[in-house]
Amino acid sequence: GQQVMQIPQYQHVQEGEDFTTYCNSSTTLSNIQWYKQRPGGHPVFLIQLVKSGEVKKQKRLTFQFGEAKKNSSLHITATQTTDVGTYFCAGWSALTNAGKSTFGDGTTLTVKP
Amino acid sequence: NAGVTQTPKFQVLKTGQSMTLQCAQDMNHEYMSWYRQDPGMGLRLIHYSVGAGITDQGEVPNGYNVSRSTTEDFPLRLLSAAPSQTSVYFCASSYSRQAANTGELFFGEGSRLTVL
């Protein structure tokens, strides 16, 4: 079945440093979504990427979808303590996995003030 | 809007007991799903539904049953609880899963289940 790998598992940064998490799928995706989960909370949607090579920005967050639609990344510029949490990617394929989003295991970000 | 409501928030069961986790959404979403989240792991899909009367299995369906008699509700039943089912359970819904623009998943706040 479809597998989505996410690296790194953990990332510790000093406030102000940049952060990147990477997501790789074993199959071509129809879309990829990113979610953030604060400690003790539930996942909250950040963004969806659909097009090959798509790049979207939300303030300090930059999301990319690979040309082959099998990988994606989330980059945070100048991290803040409010960025703490676990970031998940979720891949969906209409052809091979209709109805099912496969989540990566997440990258847990800690930010030292 | 309440969004996605899960009950109970916390539950302790003994091995072999059965229970139902409730999930309701008021957004008229076609798609509903149940995930479990174990420490250090991602979200694993248990069961999902693309509409009333339609359910299907996810990655880890064993030991769980679901039904979808209405658009709003999607209960998850544990038939005979086992310690391996200790986890945090999330219900999530979205308006559609039928096209590339699937729309975001809205998650409930989670139900923390401990099986002794």
What distinguishing features does this structure have?
heterodimer, A: 113 residues, mainly beta, 6-stranded mixed β-sheet, 5-stranded antiparallel β-sheet, 11 strands, globular, B: 116 residues, 7-stranded mixed β-sheet
Run of helices and strands of chain B: EEEEEEEEEEE
The structure class of chain B reads: mainly beta
> What is the residue-averaged pLDDT of chain B?
92
What fraction strand of chain B? Answer: over 45%
The gyration radius over C-alpha positions of chain A equals 14 Å
The average pLDDT value of chain A, as a whole number, equals 93
How many helical stretches of chain B? 0
Any idea what the radius of gyration of chain B is? Answer: 13 Å
Describe the protein's architecture and organization.
The complex is a heterodimer of chains A (113) and B (116). The model of chain A has no long low-confidence stretch (mean pLDDT 93). Chain A is built from no helices and eleven strands. With 113 residues, chain A is an all-beta fold. By secondary structure, chain B is mainly β. Chain B is built from no helices and eleven strands. In chain B, 36% of the residues are buried. Chains A and B meet through β4, β5, β9 and β10 of A and β4, β5 and β10 of B.
Helix/strand layout:
The complex is a heterodimer of chains A (113) and B (116).
Chain A: E1 4-7, E2 10-14, E3 19-25, E4 31-37, E5 44-49, E6 55-58, E7 61-65, E8 71-76, E9 85-92, E10 101-103, E11 107-112
Parallel strand pairs in A: 2-11
Antiparallel strand pairs in A: 1-3, 3-8, 4-5, 4-9, 6-7, 7-8, 9-10, 9-11
Chain B: E1 4-7, E2 10-13, E3 19-25, E4 31-37, E5 43-51, E6 54-57, E7 64-66, E8 76-78, E9 87-94, E10 106-107, E11 111-115
Parallel strand pairs in B: 2-11
Antiparallel strand pairs in B: 1-3, 3-8, 4-5, 4-9, 5-6, 7-8, 9-10, 9-11
